[in-house]
Specification:
This protein folds into three domains: 36-102 and 110-230, no CATH class; 233-336, no CATH class; 366-477, Immunoglobulin-like (Sandwich). Helix content is 41%, strand content 20%. The chain has helices at 36-54, 87-108, 111-115, 118-134, 137-145, 150-176, 181-190, 195-215, 217-223, 226-229, 245-248, 273-276, 297-309, 321-326, 330-335, 340-361, and strands spanning 59-60, 63-64, 66-69, 74-77, 80-82, 240-243, 316-319, 366-372, 379-381, 385-396, 402-410, 417-420, 426-427, 432-442, 449-461, 464-477.
């Protein structure tokens, strides 16, 4: 092969091929737009932030409704109390979330990225503040190009002050999911904030300020892995933001009353407004690109232009590649959404959700772990008994006091009995106790070796039995009897 048969694509203005290996960021000034997709974005920004900022302030049974108490190793989610032993629920929840992402992507592309991703949501919030302080697109471009003055400093300082307030409140709320937020507010007010709360509050605030205020589309384009592997979940029947090449090309400017068909032009007037409103700065007319987050801003912008030109809407629209190529109606395109991969994702997702719900509903309020006391594996007591010592970790996963009873059952051991401190019978709400128990068997009724036994714990609440947990273990009889 000739050495000159392949060359890296040169960047515009690059002086050598080495400069094509990177791209200097060009600041993007998204233009404001209104329309159906913009209203959806606004509503989802409001909804997600009501959930995020409001949830830590909700109360449940005299405590914070949602609290991930890492120090006490308890997760409170309304009436549910989870312990480290319940990590399986977190694993299943993560799998459910991943499958939901795959399902939504297979149906309609990057819906999560365009409407609910924290990076998109906070970028929209920061852009809204930027537009209110600096103006819309062209005003911001002029302001950045102007020399520094008192006016420019005042405007920039106001914008950043508002950004920092939002970022700090976001960091405070984030920490409030791990530390009771009302107590946290008192610590902030009194200046008694702990070192780790201070670090994570400032770290999360800085990340919010930097990602939403400065990095913006760079996070979506270069840092987010989802942008890279979404192509394996999208096929020709997936609804994505699409430019109708057959209708729009050849593009060109014209007057409103001009007969563009007679002039050999398509419906695209080449106004570039679809590019100006794009938060990642791409041109959707070049085809679907991994940088597209599916927000639909270009659809709203193009529809407004089509209305002004008295052309039909939908030059840029949410549709599938097959619908565009084969001229399918919207109903026909929607009918092709129910394909094998969507059916498989949906079936698995629903099965996992149902299984998780049933598992939580049937979850026993008592958890028991049996630990052998390694300091006293087996011993003779009073010349009459062979005794093994165990430690029971009893966890009351409910938020009501619990009364427990412990008993031992031997498969081939007659006269087996369990002895423990009577005070161990009371378990406080959402608490755990390590209870030592002694299991004895008459010395004349045993033979040397290891015997299988069961330790059963019965729990009652309000005089009603709520759990009966049986754990298998072994009873050791020394060989030197």
């Amino acid at each position: 092969m000739n050495d000159n048969s392949w060359r890296p694509m040169a960047m515009p203005g690059a002086e050598s091929s080495d400069e094509a290996l990177y791209e200097v960021r060009r600041k993007i000034y998204p233009r404001s737009v209104t329309g159906a997709f913009d209203r959806w974005r606004v509503w989802l920004v409001v909804l997600t932030q009501l959930v995020f900022y409001g949830t830590p302030w909700l109360q449940w049974n005299g405590r914070q409704a949602v609290l991930f108490d890492l120090g006490a190793r308890k997760f409170y989610i309304f009436g549910l109390v989870l312990w480290p032993q319940d990590v399986i629920y977190l694993s299943v929840l993560l799998v459910i979330s991943a499958l939901a992402l795959f399902l939504f992507t297979a149906i309609a592309g990057r819906l999560f990225c365009g409407y609910a991703c924290p990076q998109t949501v906070y970028t929209q919030i920061f852009l809204w503040i930027e537009r209110r302080t600096e103006g819309d697109r062209f005003a911001r471009i002029r302001l950045d190009g102007d020399p520094w003055s008192l006016r420019k400093v005042r405007i920039k300082a106001t914008k950043h002050a508002l950004w920092i307030v939002i970022a700090l409140w976001t960091g405070f709320t984030f920490v409030g999911f791990f530390t009771p937020i009302r107590a946290l507010g008192g610590q902030v007010a009194s200046g008694a904030l702990g070192p780790w709360q201070t670090f994570w509050m400032l770290f999360y605030a800085f990340a919010t300020w930097g990602n939403a205020g400065f990095m913006r589309e760079q996070v979506c384009k270069y840092m987010c892995p989802y942008a890279r592997f979404q192509s394996v979940m999208v096929d020709r029947d997936t609804f994505v933001v699409t430019y109708d090449v057959g209708r729009g090309e050849p593009r060109g400017s014209r007057g409103r009353k001009a007969d563009h068909r007679a002039a050999g032009l398509g419906d695209c007037v080449n106004c570039s407004i679809c590019v100006q409103v794009c938060p990642t700065g791409i041109d959707i007319r070049d085809g679907l690109q991994y940088e597209c987050i599916g927000c639909g801003a270009c659809i709203d912008a193009c529809n407004q232009v089509m209305d002004k030109m008295a052309y039909p809407r939908g030059l840029i629209r949410y549709t599938s590649e097959n619908a565009m190529r084969k001229g399918l109606t919207r109903a026909e395109a929607r009918g092709r959404l129910l394909r094998p991969r969507v059916f498989i994702y949906s079936t698995i997702w629903l099965a996992l959700v149902a299984g998780l719900a049933v598992s939580i509903a049937l979850r026993a309020p008592l958890k028991v772990d049996v630990l052998r006391d390694r300091g006293a594996l087996s011993r003779e007591v009073d010349g009459r008994w062979i005794e093994n010592v165990y430690r029971l970790q009893l966890i009351n996963t409910s938020e009501a006091p619990m009364h427990v009873r412990v008993r031992a059952n031997g498969h081939d051991l007659a006269g087996l009995r369990a002895e423990y401190d009577v005070s161990a019978e009371a378990l406080a709400p959402a608490s755990n106790r390590l209870v030592p128990i002694r299991v004895r068997v008459p010395i004349e009724a045993v033979r040397a070796g290891t015997h299988k036994i069961d330790i059963a714990v019965t729990a009652e609440q309000g005089g009603r039995q709520v759990a009966d947990v049986v754990q298998a273990t072994s009873f050791i009889v020394p060989r030197n009897l």
